[in-house]
Amino acid sequence: MQAADFIEVYPGALDAAACAAIVERMRASDALQPGQVGGGVHPELKHSRDLSISERPDWADVAQALNVAVYDGLLAYLRRYPQALIAPLMLQHADGQGGLRRLSAQDIAALDDKALGQLARTCLRPGAINLQWYRAGEGGYPYWHCELYPRAPDCETLHRHLLWTIYLNEGFGAGETEFLFQQRKVAPRTGDLLIAPTAFTHTHRGNRPEGADKFIATSWILFQRAEALYGGR
Questions:
Q1: How far apart, in whole angstroms, are the C-alpha atoms of residue 228 and residue 230?
Q2: Cα 17–chain centre separation
Q3: Which residues form the Prolyl 4-hydroxylase alpha subunit Fe(2+) 2OG dioxygenase domain (predicted)?
């Protein structure tokens, strides 16, 4: 049996027409900014034009569509890797006899989509969505990086559990999402959803597109903050 690399691709998570509409809105937008990394704008590390849409009412329809597409992929991911929930959180549920029993991978497998979705929403939350435009022959994110790191003031970046990317177009050369230790390149295909862990084990980079521009939507699935998970404890 081949060892899991925890990198999953879900084809056609967002339909091609919706992807094309997002690309056209990006091309027409005057709100795009130079792409940033954790330490600010460093085009030698990441060269893109970005638009964060989660706090923009005029992009609320796009954020909703992307989150719905990611939600379905997340449920599939949790079914394949239930430890993504139960290993870090040691979840418990009522045993029917007045006590509590820890959830197992088999318990997760037995949940229907509604129950699994409720559990996922209890433990996890969506991150801010960033649209990114990489120009052919010059754009890219060549720096090997991961998504999990401390950042003041509230260390929100340490809550990142999974990363996701939806590829909004294709038809260009290269431009893959390349994972260092897994020695794997994910080629962009319109509407495909990529989900992977955020830690250094999944160090990755975005290779430069050739022949045409590359457009993606990307964000993270975060743990709920401790105050929400555990209250005042």
A1: 6
A2: 21
A3: 132-221
Half-sphere exposure of 207 (CA within 13 A, CB side): 16
3-state secondary structure labels for all residues of 107-175: HHHHCCHHHHHHHHHHHEEECCCEEEEECCCCCEEEEEECCCCCCCCCCHHHHEEEEEEEECCCCCEEC
Prediction pTM value: 0.95
H-run or E-run covering 38: none
3-state helix, strand, coil in the chain (%, to 5): 30, 30, 40
How far is Cα 156 from Cα 153, in angstroms, rounded to an integer?
8
Contact assessment for residue 188 and residue 217, using Cβ atoms and an 8 Å cutoff = no
Percent of the chain with pLDDT over 90: 86
Distance separating alpha carbons of residues 22 and 105, to the nearest angstrom: 37
Neighbouring C-alpha atoms within 13 Å toward the C-beta of 26: 27
Distance CA 25, CA 145 (A): 29
Residues in the chain: 233
| CA proximity to 160, closest of 200, 192, 188, 190 | 200
Contact 123, 85 (CB under 8 A): yes
